[in-house]
Design brief:
Shape: globular
Oligomer: single chain
Bound molecules: ligand Z5A
Strand order of the largest sheet: 2-3-1-4-5
Number of strands: 5
CATH superfamily: P-loop containing nucleotide triphosphate hydrolases
CATH class: Alpha Beta
Helix content: 40-55%
Number of helices: 8
Distance between the termini: 35 Å
CATH topology: Rossmann fold
Structural class: alpha/beta
Strand content: 5-15%
Largest sheet: 5 strands, parallel
Number of domains: 1
């Protein structure tokens, strides 16, 4: 059953390529929304629930890669279904806002560009996400060379970061195509700027789209 009406919380996702600053900005957005008086939970994908975190370990270790992009998309969908059912949907139903660091658009951009057909991804999304679609998606757009440089400063490359530059460029285009196809849900944020400037753009987008204007009085 769809969760609608005044009690439902709002669902915000952050998407983009490696090292674009999603996690940094997701935490800043959490603080901003809390200061504005909202109940908010932060979560992430792959993962976000204990069972989905187990699947995350398999995926990021590259253990599913040999089975191909359809199988990887299936694993992401299994994790997502659990995450949606046990974390996201209950929170929204209680009127809590949810911020997720990556969600279903990542499957389109990563497994889609690797060869999983959009028809199959549509069906998986229907099963895993159902009606629990984001109200707002912030797509942090960044040249993948800069994103990989930032990511490399922080950690050893995982299964996805280790891919070649052309693949990263295709993912960037896939995210921009999603934004162009769904302008009502998506806002593209220029992530090449400093952290504070990016945060200001995100606050402006959230304010404009979701009616948040700053700390509650
Ligand atoms: N994946 C998939 O294939 N299919 C799916 O359906 C889903 C995911 C859901 C999850 O990795 C991987 O799973 C991911 C896609 C794939 N591919 N990879 N890799 P993850 O969760 O481990 O990591 P990530 O989601 O890719 O994010 P990240 O690499 O951790 O980066 P980030 O969250 O975008 O950025 P950050 O951690 O906030 O910042 C990175 C560094 O840059 C850090 O040192 C910051 O201090 C710095 N930073 C942040 N902002 C700035 C600015 N503005 N200027 C300069 N430096 C900055």
């Amino acid at each position: 059953m769809a969760l609608t009406g005044p009690q439902r919380g709002l669902f915000i996702t952050l998407e983009g390529g490696e090292g674009c600053g999603k996690s940094t900005q997701a935490w800043r957005l959490l603080d901003f929304l809390k200061e504005a008086g909202r109940e908010v939970v932060m979560t992430r994908e792959p993962g976000g629930s204990p069972e989905a975190e187990t699947i995350r370990q398999l995926l990021l270790a590259g253990l599913v890669k040999p089975f191909g992009p359809d199988a990887e998309a299936l694993f992401f969908a299994v994790a997502r279904r659990d995450h949606v059912e046990n974390v996201i949907r209950p929170a929204l139903g209680q009127g809590t806002w949810v911020i997720s660091d990556r969600f279903a658009d990542s499957t389109r951009a990563y497994q889609g560009t690797a060869g999983a057909s959009s028809d199959k991804l549509d069906r998986l999304e229907e099963i895993a996400v159902g009606e629990t679609r984001p109200d707002l998606t912030l797509i942090l757009d960044l040249d993948p060379r800069e994103g990989l440089r930032r990511a490399a400063l922080r950690s050893i490359a995982d299964r996805f970061e280790a891919d070649g530059l052309e693949i990263h460029a295709a993912r960037r285009k896939a995210f921009l195509d999603i934004a162009a196809a769904e302008p009502g849900r998506c806002v593209v944020i220029d992530a090449s700027r400093g952290e504070e400037e990016v945060a200001a753009s995100i606050r402006a987008a959230v304010g404009e789209r979701l009616g948040i204007s700053g700390p509650a009085s």
